[in-house]
Specification:
2 copies of one chain form a homodimer. Chain A has helices at about 25-30, 50-70, 90-100, 115-125, 140-150, 200-220, 235-250, 260-265, 280-295, 315-320, and strands spanning about 5, 10-25, 40, 80-85, 105, 130-140, 165, 170-175, 180-185, 230-235, 260, 280, 305-310, 325-335. The first copy, chain A, has about 350 residues and is α/β, with parallel strands linked by helices. Chain A folds into 2 domains: about 5-175, Peroxisomal Thiolase, Chain A, domain 1 (3-Layer(aba) Sandwich), CATH 3.40.47.40; about 180-335, Peroxisomal Thiolase, Chain A, domain 1 (3-Layer(aba) Sandwich). The first copy, chain A, is globular and about 50 Å long. Chains A and B meet through strand 2, helix 3, strand 5, helix 4 and helix 10 of A and strand 2, helix 3, strand 5, helix 4 and helix 10 of B.
Chain lengths: ~350, ~350
């Protein structure tokens, strides 16, 4: 039985282990600083498929299969999959799940989806109804550009606050019994909207949600930034990251020592021409399942708080003059069971 | 602690009560046979909003607020919301959640979303981490038509297998302690695709998923159709409903006595010109939260199995020549705790 902690947090009592992960990335991510932590490096944007949407679906499917295989399991051993992506009607996930044969719940948390999946998977296992779960998420630069912005052929100029959608998919297998790393806490985000209407400033739009969830997590658990070796947000980029440090400081929390943002880590910000940094469901997904997981397995990191950050807009809501609501979900991962 | 039953089912051990529901419907649904069971009847498609998307978001928000109020609770009493809709990036849900202030998980299960929400809410409460949850879902004829098919002004001819998207939103408050009706079992669906490529034949595309989940539920629980007063699917319509009866019969289950489909119940199939019936997230949502809930509270129904059925396509996947994958999630609801 999990326990309720404060307004937004659940503390796990049955240790939920992340027993394996798998990551697949595109060419630009393979040239970035986290490249050695990824399992599969695609040689081009298509990976043998006729459309980028089919590629992204294949990436999810292969990441899930690889993670299940690494965990020493078969498809029939997986009690439930939690998956999502950025595409309309989450087709990358639905078409991938068609091939995998797991019982399946589709999620939409924008770029927070991987952490939403880890959260719900952990809750379902801690509750006893599932022994295993797999969380999956993906994004693809080419599918996201043509859906949210312009056809690639148009070659539109990008603003300084714009971010680069990560081409990446990741999967994590969760289990009731295992040796860790363990998901110990889940903090569910609220939708927060400070009125940013610039759809090219996602970092600014999502930062208030990250701050809200961080403050809730510390309040609910009695912890502080010093409780963690690393606090990692999803894809706030340069702009959002700076807002988080400043505003958390104003809230009495010093985040300047151990705080990173996946969007600032996955590319070389000096040389890879990504403006404010990386973004997309794949950004936090491959960073957590690649870099963070390996650092925890090797004991270089032992207590990590990861936040998926999502912007809950659509091209339609933008055209109708709406601002950009943000959300951030957090899970605490530890090499100890508490 | 919930218990795992077979491949796809979870049995609840902490009784999860549906302590209140609320429903809001459009004009066509107000003229249908289930009209007396709905709480709010909109007088037009706009409900005072400038766009149909804003209307649908308002419908979700007001349904959630009304359900919380009927349960004698305040927004701060709700530990978590599970919500979704059909629109790109689930904007009806995201923008509604922005106003409500609940910790929020976004779902995408196409028209199965309400049952996905009830499932995950029940699992989260049974697991002990949540004391309350709210499940919310919506659809709107005008937002769905312009997104999935044609602008309404175009006046396109509809095929005989086409269905009519329900304008409706519903919310249900779930609680750890209460007097029922109780969610006793959750059966998670797999994605099933029999290769239907006609996006105007959703009933045919989704029926195999409903059959798969029904068979799994009966196998996992040792139950049969006779265990229930009513078995209700979401929006298979005339075409899909007939496939379910025939194919379940071929699988050894007699469904001819107590099986209904919300899509065939919400409109008068003779006079309301809806072709194969109703569809959309709102279809099963308002039928379960309106009709089924009232029949259970009054003791006219005592054991019900409800299945949300979803078609996981997008206009993009259809244009790329993909078939239509279906999914069906089931929850068993009883006036007794088991």
């Amino acid at each position: 039985m999990a326990v309720r902690l404060g307004r937004q947090t659940i503390g796990m009592t049955r240790p939920v282990t992340i027993s394996s992960t798998a990551t697949i990335v595109g060419t630009k991510e393979s040239e970035g600083p986290l490249s050695p932590y990824f399992d599969v490096h695609m040689k081009d944007a298509e990976w043998g498929e006729k459309t980028w949407e089919k590629t992204e679906s294949k990436m999810q499917k292969e990441a899930a299969k690889l993670a299940v295989q690494k965990a020493g399991k078969k498809a029939d051993d997986i009690d439930c999959a939690f998956a999502g992506d950025l595409l309309n009607q989450c087709i990358s996930s639905g078409f991938s799940a068609r091939e995998l044969g797991f019982p399946y719940y589709g999620l939409y948390g924008a770029c927070s989806t991987m952490i939403e999946g880890l959260s719900l998977g952990a809750v379902a296992i801690d509750g006893g109804g599932n022994n295993t779960a797999v969380a999956v998420a993906s994004s693809h630069f080419c599918t996201a550009e043509r859906q949210y912005r312009n056809p690639l052929e148009y070659g539109g100029q990008r603003t300084p606050t714009a971010q680069w959608t990560v081409t990446g998919a990741a999967a994590a297998v969760l289990e009731a019994d295992g040796g860790g790393p363990y998901i110990t806490h889940v903090t569910t985000g609220k939708v927060v909207d400070f009125g940013v209407i610039d759809q090219n400033n996602m970092g600014g739009a999502m930062a208030p949600a990250a701050i809200d969830t961080l403050c809730a997590h510390f309040k609910d658990t009695g912890r502080s930034p010093e409780s963690y070796d690393l606090i990692l947000t999803g894809d706030l980029g340069k702009v959002g990251r700076e807002i988080v440090i400043n505003m958390m400081n104003a809230n009495g929390f010093n985040m300047s020592d151990n705080y990173g943002d996946s969007g600032c880590m996955i590319y070389d910000m000096e040389t890879q021409d990504v403006h404010a940094g990386g973004s997309g469901c794949g950004c936090i997904a491959v960073t957590v399942c690649g870099y963070v997981y390996e650092m925890m397995k090797s004991g270089k990191l032992n207590n990590v708080l990861v936040l998926g950050t999502g912007a809950l807009l659509s091209p339609t809501s933008t055209m109708q003059g709406e601002s950009v609501p943000g959300i951030a979900h957090a899970v605490a991962i530890s090499n100890k069971t508490e």
